[in-house]
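User: For a reading group we're discussing how well predicted structures match intuition. Take TonB-linked outer membrane protein, SusC/RagA family. Before you show the prediction, I'll give you the sequence so everyone sees exactly what went in.
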Amino acid sequence: MNKNIIRLGMICSVLFPNISLKMKLTTLFLILVLFRIQANTYSQNTKITLDLESVGVMKVFKEIEAKSEFKFLGNQDVIDKERLVSIHVKNQRIEKILTNLFQGTHITFKTIDRQIILKKEKPKIELKDPPIHNSAKQKQQHTISGTVVDIDGTPLPGANILEKGTTNGTQADFDGNFSLAVSNEEAILTISYIGFAAKEVAIKNQKNLNVVLQESADGLDEVVVVGYGTEIKRNLTSAVASVSTEELQDIPATSLSNAIAGRLAGVSISSAGGRPGTTAGISIRGATTGPLQGSSAPLYVIDNVIATKELFDLLGVNEVESVSVLKDAAASAVYGARASNGVILVTTKRGQPGKPVLTFNTSIGTSKVSRDVQHTTAYEHSLLINQAVRAGSDPLIPNSQHGTVPISDVELEYLKNNPFPNFLNDVEIDPLVKNYTANISGASDVVDYFIAGSYIDESGSLKKLNYNKSNLRANIGVKLSENLKISLTSSLATDNDYQYYWPFDSNNDNLFDGYRQAGRRGNWAPTYINGLPVANFNAFHIGDYMDQAGAGDRTRKTNLLNYTVDIDYKVPFLKGLSAGITYNNRKNINTNTTFRKPHTSYFFAADPNNQFLLTDEITGTRTRLEGGSDGNSIYKDNNTVISYQLNARLNYDYTVGDHNIKAGFIYEQWEADSDFFWVRRRNLLTTEIQQLFATSNDAEDRNGNGSEFEEGRLSYIGTLGYTFKNKYFINGSFRYDGSVRFEEENRYGFFPSVSTAWIVSEESFFNDNLDFIDFFKIRASLGLTGSDAVTSTFSYLEGFQASGSTVFGNGNNLNTTIVSRGIASTGLTWDKTKSFNIGADFEFLQNRLSTTVEVFKNKRSNLFGPRQSTVPVLIGTGLPPENYGAVDVEGFEVLTNYKNKIGNVSYNIGANIGYSKNRVTTFDESDALRDYERQLGTNTGRIFGYRNIGMVRTQSQLDELIATGYTFENQTPYIGSLIYEDIRGNSTEDPQGNTPDGVIDRNDRDVIGQYSSPPINYGITLGFTYKDFSFNAFVQGFEGHERVVPDNGRFYFDVISEGGWAHWNDAFDPVDNPDGKFPRFTRWGTNGNPNFQTSSFWLQKAGFARLKNLNISYNLPQTALQTVGVKQAKLYFNGTNLFFLYSTIKEYDPEISSGAGIPINKTYSLGLQITL
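Assistant: Thanks. Here is the predicted 3D structure of TonB-linked outer membrane protein, SusC/RagA family, as structure tokens, for the group to look at:
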């Protein structure tokens, strides 16, 4: 054991040379502890692999001693040394090996730690029957029946049942039932099933057995979905990550992307915000386009059919079997077009052999914003305003809407004692999340079926926000003959998104402006007086927009109908050959409706001595129609996309001896047609009827437009794989893709790949020297993928479009004209990504500890972008894009997991981390750019701004600064202003301007942050099960990036009613707060105000880790359930986005890139799952 520890320590030093000595010693200590624990139970835990044919028993002893620390003791003369045996076992315990070795002999053994004591068995006079050597020669005396299930009670059809020490056995039927005649009532049965740990059961005079199998700890038999097929995890040669949705079933997520966030190494998934129905952005191994045109989004494939991100998120979690991510080109090259950024594969559920299983799952929860933006109160704001006026800031124009300054002591005391909520406080609620799912599944030897339905309803954290989604699915397969099977996959999904109307937010954003406006307005007066919205101190009353009738609303609806027919035929006259056809048809309809109406608020008289003390006397009204002309209107649009995909395939899978060959060829055809139109009608007859027919018939009140496009791709795909002795693997593939986005001579691209793997732990030299490693595989891959994401379809053709923005003659009327849509982009072809990946998979401690390491480098070339050149104005357009840009991406991923069971407690600990960085290697840039502004040779996502070097806090400091000639944008500094570093000037003698000139202007901007998006993402899982209780926690984190405080921290001081961030309560003031952290409060709209510029002062480290999900469940006792006909019932609690373990940003939710949109919700839900 000690020599193994030394070897392990040396390996750690080689693999991790940059880890500190303290960390190395800590790691070594933990390893020593683990090995000491293992030493205490060495004989129970050690597994041995033997492959011996016709050898003497003593040879077996020597092999065992050579491959382990066991020593054989006792009188070996009692052993028949001439006896020849054959033994072929892999990773078996010593007790099992020796029991089989000595079966039918008079030798017994006893194991004490590493010592094996042999002795001769004493004869038993009462034994009349001969020892059992072959069950075929025995007289069957006892029949045992039973059922084999997993820990959830699901039958395991096809499970193997073997009478120990014999060849007598059978298999479980479709319901997991079996019946076996055994030699006697003391027989022992061995039950096994792929992916589960084998189990021995003593009959002991029983007639019926209920056998529960546990999943295998190593997971090497796990089936992983790969391009156009499946493969067991053990045999993978490429970079593939997967997640089973069993661990996601209880999460009340409205989108699949939110449910899988953080669970896959190298896959960055972050939510766009807390608006109900908001999905998460997904990136595989980082951004790949940089400043050039193209897409960094992965390709989505659902049940082998090309899909979109929208369709992916419409899936219900309960209908998904697994999600696989193809990360390198060897895995994704078979998808060619659009596969440059990786592929996300989804496989939906199908029926499993057995009787019908009916499952219901329902949960209800409440949500609350995880981190609300904090704003100043009216009283705090008033103190700041008075400080600003005292400092000489521009006074505000007195009027009844905005108020007057400075604010008197009487008014300050009133605001202090009468704190009014801002609009956000008025309309923020703790919404409900309701989730209901049901499915029935099963299979016979002819038909398999899975039928499911789900409904989820989520209210927003603001009033007048709601999202709901419904799903129906039917997956049915029919085996028409022994060789012919036809399958139907069909689904219907609908979702509805409802929100208040606010003109400065769109249908698909996180309501950034509305949320920001509501947070900084409204706390100067009551929101309503006598039920009427108050106009005093409010340029607009967004609280009423969000709360009551407001100014209208927006609705978005999606209806998706999808079906796939698949025919699979096993050719009977050639073993291993199969053929099939898959046809998919999909219709996706998206509709948007926007209803706008005028909004009226009311001015109320104020106390003469206190402008904030309002009476109920109405002095005037204000009517606004935000975002348009007078009158009300209704807008509708409809986008219908109809697509089909046809695949025809041939597959060959043949094994002879130690050789396995797999080959495939696929023909694929895909076409889509999109039809879009919109209409707008103004001046509704009544706002109670929001329909197009109830509007004005005047021509000027009616308009609309529309467009249509079509596209298609044609592909030929080939795969070839060879395996030798199940430990040497080589796989190759190609895809020949054609896209109508390119002109005919450039239409097709060829995308090949090759990958190989070697299971080193299968070699005898490895087992002889590193037997403490249970599994070790190395693999490498190289491949080419492509993308056809040009700016527009048919961009290689000259085109014209209608325009209504041209003025002819002396009038001001706009006229409709025909204009060029730009110079045709001739010569465009595929952009390409060359991907190289090496990986290693390890398993230790009897397969309980597993680790995967990936290192990759991707070189993307032929990216689209316009060249830097001047086009004469008379041309009327710019240069078209060309294929010329290039971006490199490199990084690594590590995934590790530990599983174990002690008594009734099973537990697991896992972690994954991914790191990637990119570099622009080819890009045209203007010669006028400074060096620091150039993107060539740098990573994308850098943050530019001024470098803050302090703040003016005293008069003497100000005098010294002015004496140097320091100015900011021609403005002199003042007490309380930020000071910036003078980096360079604008001298004509120095084109790069690297000589400081004493003037702070745009020439002094510099790179203040390297990454605006996180280069590091990670996840940590922790779970344990004790009897019927289970606990699972998941932590997600991002690291290595920075953010600038939204709006550069500015305070909206143009009017009294616009408040700001609460951090301004610590603003510097020479009298009230001379040690303040933040600059002096001044009117932000003042030209050149230095305090509200993008600078390192407002730059924050943005790393964080949050408890993303927590699940606690309890399985109700089956004895009680059986009386009411319930097979299984589970109660559970689920929490999402519960809290931050750490976050350097305190003001807002750091996961939201915009910073100031609706925060992500934390949700607490209780649920019940019943299986019949």
